[in-house]
């Protein structure tokens, strides 16, 4: 009888134990692979206190990326604050988005109707509010152009100490690109923002273009999955409707690697590196990530691609 009583007390103590969750800000431009990254994050919310999701322009214009984030907030992160971010890059307005890859809406063939989920008008101010109130370091996860984050650093440099790390899908290791011969899309869209963030002193965990290219999953894998829930239908439709110029038969998991790097770092090596970003108009967005064991920043390198892909598929379709 005594052992039963002790067991009950122990169970009660576990139930009352405070669970510490890492405070989190997400900044993105959905975007099909952004959408899959958000689904992956939604399956790991037990580890995080999601404070804010911000939109930025990139894959599609700000009106559409904001609308898509409203959809995710309503269906996957209900209660989180959503804020509208920057319409344009810091210096030069880009005349090219990625709607040829993601579809005009950014969500491929998946229909997102009009949204009523509330949206705050200024992402940078909402970021500031979260950081000002924070009692422990906040992690920023950015898988779009870094315009909003750069404006935060410019306007409120005193808050940099409140940011533990920035996890970001941007750039490439050796100066290669997928939108130009030398520039990955997010870096191309706002190279000045990436440059400023790389110099601000906050450690970066960079998910480079090469990692997304390696992390390809055939569309047929998604086609054979069940369609029992809204998540199933969303994931399948997104995966099947993306047009990836590098390999039209597959989907490159660019942004999902950023979320998995945060939630399950055991899948990666993190290579300390210096970050060089070019802003010259002729090669704007070109990056070089050179190994340096003394650097606070790093880039992700997958350990076992097959195991990583298995985890991503399982998580995208698990109940």
Q: List unreliable stretches of 5+ residues.
A: none
Structural category: alpha/beta
Largest sheet: 9 strands, mixed
Estimate the mean pLDDT confidence. Answer: 92
- How are strands sequenced across the largest beta sheet? 3-2-1-4-5-6-11-9-10
CATH class: Alpha Beta
Element-level helix/strand string: HEHEHEHHEHEHHEHEHHEHEEEH
- In the CATH classification, which architecture applies? Alpha-Beta Complex
Shape: globular
The termini sit apart by: 38 Å
Using the coordinates shown, work out and report the CATH topology.
Inosine-uridine Nucleoside N-ribohydrolase, Chain A
* SS elements, strand count: 11
Beta-strand portion reads 15-25%
The CATH homologous superfamily: Ribonucleoside hydrolase-like
How many structural domains does the protein architecture include?
A: 1
**Proportion in helices:** 25-40%
Rg (CA only): 20 Å
Q: How many H/I helices? A: 13
């Amino acid at each position: 009888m005594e052992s039963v009583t002790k067991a009950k007390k122990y169970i009660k103590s576990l139930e009352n134990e405070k669970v510490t969750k890492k405070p989190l800000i997400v900044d993105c431009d959905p975007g099909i692979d952004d959408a899959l990254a958000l689904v992956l994050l939604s399956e790991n919310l037990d580890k995080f206190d999601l404070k804010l999701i911000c939109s930025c322009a990139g894959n599609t214009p700000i009106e559409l990326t904001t609308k898509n984030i409203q959809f995710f907030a309503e269906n996957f992160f209900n209660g989180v604050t959503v804020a509208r971010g920057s319409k344009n890059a810091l210096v030069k307005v880009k005349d090219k988005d990625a709607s040829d890859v993601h579809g005009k809406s950014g969500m491929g063939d998946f229909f997102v109707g009009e949204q009523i989920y509330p949206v705050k008008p200024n992402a940078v101010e909402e970021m500031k509010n979260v950081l000002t109130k924070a009692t422990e370091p906040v992690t920023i996860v950015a898988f779009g152009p870094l315009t909003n984050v750069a404006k935060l650093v410019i306007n409120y440099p005193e808050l940099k100490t409140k940011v533990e790390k920035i996890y970001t899908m941007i750039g490439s290791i050796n100066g290669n690109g997928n939108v130009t011969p030398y520039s990955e899309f997010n870096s191309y869209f706002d190279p000045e923002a990436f440059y400023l963030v790389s110099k601000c002193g906050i450690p970066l965990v960079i998910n480079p273009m090469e990692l997304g290219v390696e992390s390809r999953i055939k569309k047929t894998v998604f086609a054979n999955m069940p369609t029992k829930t809204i998540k199933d239908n969303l994931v399948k439709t997104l995966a099947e409707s993306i047009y990836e110029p590098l390999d039209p038969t597959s989907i490159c998991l660019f942004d999902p690697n950023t979320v998995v790097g945060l939630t399950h770092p055991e899948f990666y090596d993190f290579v300390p590196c210096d970050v060089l970003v070019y802003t010259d108009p002729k090669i704007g967005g070109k990056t070089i990530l050179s190994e340096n064991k003394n650097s606070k920043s790093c880039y992700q390198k997958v350990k076992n691609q097959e195991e990583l892909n298995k985890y991503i598929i399982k998580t995208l379709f698990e109940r």
